[in-house]
Design goal:
alpha/beta; five-stranded parallel sheet; 15 helices; 5 strands; 54% helix; binds zinc ion
């Protein structure tokens, strides 16, 4: 699979290409703008442009472009928040898996859950890669998404300082592109070392092209979003990436409903089968969202039980909330979602049965 193309930002693309041609592109850039306008995709496009071998980059045809478009380019490094690593540092395999995960959707993704960050292991890998010569071309490009999530960590001051130095005195063959939708949350020491470029909302025509892209259409197909293109454009409001987040939120709610329904089944095997069929116990990121949605669902039902004069029912519902909250903690600690689901359903079923 290749990356879904960058839709929109034509003027900005021309400006960045022209600045690059003049050799005037700053070595450390910050692309900032609203959530979902395509800042990281624009960063990857810029990386492709910088790495392309053609006289009119990015040509889209040369070896370098082909590698960049499949994220297989050894000189293109895409870094973004991930879950807290179990044993201190994410491994290269963890990072490769995260890239493969995004790549399986053409590079599209919903915003990472709030618990995810760019941990020091990722910063160290940036430093290591920056210190090496480019593998294929003349330069290396780092695209660092949601850069405000670079978490300062105890004992990691050396890596943090080395990163600041890299931003401030970039190597001649290195370009660093940070992106952020909350640039005010960036560490001031980082913000003062990058040239900020504002990425605006995209025009409706570009959103239309985006939702009609086969890879995007396929992704939205089985989610709970309007199927009508014009309704999707209104929903996107110039930030097509938000459609993925909204799709995820409504998918999480639907999954939470199925989980709750599963918990009311008397037989454990039935409960578990229903939970699995709802995809409720899948992928860590979306599992956390499902649990958040489940907590909201239980709250709502508890209120309804109180309003309906059923205090006993309200009490057993509020007991299940404890189990949901415990599960959320376990999910944040990287415990396997299917294990959590099995024990959560058992506890919920017991509480609801009383
Ligand atoms: Zn090319």
């Amino acid at each position: 699979m290749t990356l879904v193309p960058l839709y929109g930002h034509d003027a900005l693309q021309r400006r960045l290409a022209e600045t690059t041609r003049r050799g005037a592109l700053p070595a450390s850039l910050l692309l900032h703008g609203p959530v979902g306008v395509g800042k990281q995709r624009l960063g990857l496009w810029l990386a492709q442009l910088l790495l392309c071998h053609d006289v009119a980059p990015p040509c889209g045809r040369c070896q370098s472009c082909r590698y960049a478009l499949t994220l297989a380019h050894p000189d293109l490094h895409w870094v973004f928040p991930g879950p807290r690593p179990k044993d201190g540092e994410p491994t290269e395999e963890d990072r490769a898996a995260a890239i493969a995960d995004r790549m399986s959707n053409g590079g599209l993704y919903a915003p990472p859950p709030g618990s995810e960050a760019i941990y020091v292991g990722a910063v160290r890998s940036i430093l290591r890669a920056a210190a090496m010569s480019p593998a294929l071309g003349r330069r290396k490009v780092f695209v660092i998404g949601d850069a405000e999530r670079m978490a300062p960590q105890d004992g990691a001051e050396t890596a943090a300082n080395a990163f600041l130095k890299l931003l401030e005195e970039p190597l001649a063959d290195t370009t660093i592109v940070l992106t952020s939708s909350v640039p005010g949350s960036l560490l001031p020491t980082i913000r003062s070392r990058v040239v900020a470029v504002r990425v605006p909302y995209v025009v409706d025509d570009a959103v239309r092209a985006f939702v009609r892209d086969p890879a995007v259409a396929k992704l939205l197909e089985d989610r709970e979003v309007p199927s009508d293109v014009e309704a999707l454009i209104r929903l996107a409001g110039g930030a097509p990436g938000t459609l993925l987040a909204q799709a995820d939120a409504s998918t999480a709610l639907a999954r939470a409903d199925r989980l709750f329904e599963a918990a009311t089944r008397p037989r454990a095997a039935d409960r578990y089968a229903l939970a699995l069929s709802a995809g409720a116990a899948k992928a860590r990121g979306s599992f956390s969202e499902t649990l958040d949605a489940l907590a909201a669902t239980v709250h709502r039902r508890t209120r309804q039980a109180v309003d309906a004069g059923q205090p006993g029912r309200a009490l057993s519902l509020s007991t299940t909330l404890d189990a949901v909250n415990r599960s959320t903690l376990l999910a944040a600690a990287n415990v396997n979602p299917q294990l959590i689901t099995a024990s959560l359903l058992g506890e919920m079923a017991e509480a609801l049965d009383e």
